[in-house]
Amino acid sequence: MSTSIATNEPKPKAPLRQPRKVSKARFLKEYADQEDGYKYEWNDGIVEKYQGMNQQQAEIYFLLMAYFQKTEASKTGGGLITETDMLTTPNQLRRPDISFYTGEQRRLMKQGENQIAPWVAEVISPSDNANKINSKLDEYFLAGVQVVWHIFPESKQVYVYTSPESVTICRGQTVCSAAPALPDLVINAEVLFG
């Protein structure tokens, strides 16, 4: 006669299903013009889905644009743009929320040459994953980005990175600077959040 013994050991978990990998060409074909309120990025064959900028977050872009238009970089053909493609490595295509390109970079982009923005800003929403935020920060600096702003609308703070290890936290009257990428783009944190 066999006896069964009940145990409280957890049942083995089913193995995690690995995401399906797609080629860069397929990613660009299927996700480049997707208009569903999300932005899609390509990370070593994996499609990553993020919240796109909403109208409240777009106001941050409009404020930055007003300040940017007073800079020397603006006068020499540089520009700010939202959610445009930037290959940070041959296997990673990112779409920073806001990025700056010099006049010369814009000319090269028009000819089809990938350019790395000297300054990028990511507007951080409550649903963003902290590990992915930090991984992208490292990725941006490895690619050649000089300054990264992490903008937190909920807490009205801006983390200004000039390297993955060097950060200034701006709030209230603290001045957020885009130097050295954009030395004359400066704004008080409280102004940015209106």
The helix-strand sequence is HEEHHEEEEHEHEEEEEH
Provide the residue-averaged pLDDT.
89
Overall 3D form:
globular
Number of strands: 12
**Major sheet attributes:** 6 strands, mixed
Widest β-sheet, arrangement of strands: 3-6-7-8-9-10
The rounded distance between the terminal residues' Cα atoms is 77 Å
> Helix fraction?
25-40%
* Total of DSSP H or I helical runs spanning 4+ residues: 6
What percent of residues are in strands? 25-35%
Give a description of the structure.
This protein is 27% helix and 31% strand. It is built from six helices and twelve strands. It is globular and about 45 Å long. The termini are far apart. The chain has a six-stranded mixed beta sheet. A four-stranded antiparallel beta sheet has the order 2-1-5-4, sandwiched between helices. Strand 7 (119-123), helix 5 and strand 8 form a beta-alpha-beta unit. It has 194 residues and is of the alpha+beta class.
Features:
disordered N terminus; globular; 27% helix; alpha+beta; 12 strands; 194 residues; 31% strand
Give the SSE layout.
Layout: H1 24-31, E1 38-43, E2 46-51, H2 55-68, H3 72-75, E3 79-82, E4 86-89, E5 92-94, E6 98-101, H4 103-110, E7 119-123, H5 130-143, E8 147-152, E9 157-163, E10 166-170, E11 175-178, E12 182-188, H6 189-192
Parallel strand pairs: 7-8
Antiparallel strand pairs: 1-2, 1-5, 3-6, 4-5, 6-7, 8-9, 9-10, 11-12
